[in-house]
Amino acid sequence: MSPQPTPASSPPHRCVVFSVAAQALALPVEAVRRFLPLPRLDRLPTAPQPIEGVFRYQGEIVPVLRLGMLLDLPTAPAGLYTPLILITWQGRPTALLVDRVHGDVAVAPDERVPSEPGLSFNGCAMGGFPDRVTGRGGTVTLLDPRRLLSEAESRLLDAFHAAEERRLAQWQEAAP
Predict the structure, then answer these.
(1) 60-91 core/surface letters (b: 16 or more CB in 10 A; e: else)
(2) What pTM did the predictor assign?
């Protein structure tokens, strides 16, 4: 009788760990396009509260979302060294305002713990894993970037983005 082959273990999943309001959070590394320093933002009075402002990046308008506000966490004013995490939201660049980026970590499948879908807004918490990056211990909450906004918020962000594109186009048309 020959021994049964053992199934190959799944490779570790890489995650970017960051913090917002002293909460250790993470996104799958493939969801993160880049990290950016906080640029000068255009703040618009018509923007919904979770939008800190917008900036242009590689010719596209990028809304900056206050992740702490989206997750109902305490928020602090953005400072000179506040980092942004650039992601793609429905095919367009979107930046998340966070307090600090700690780095990336490989998370083995057996380290992940499920999260209770009803305990996170819109089910955006996909699970968690032990915090080996921030030095605080505890658990890092892994977020699903596609679920950070509700359907209604997504439509509002789309409308805001379209209005901002039109507004900037008017300025470009008027330029000599």
Answers:
(1) ebbbbbbbbbbbeeebeebeeebbbbbbebee
(2) 0.83
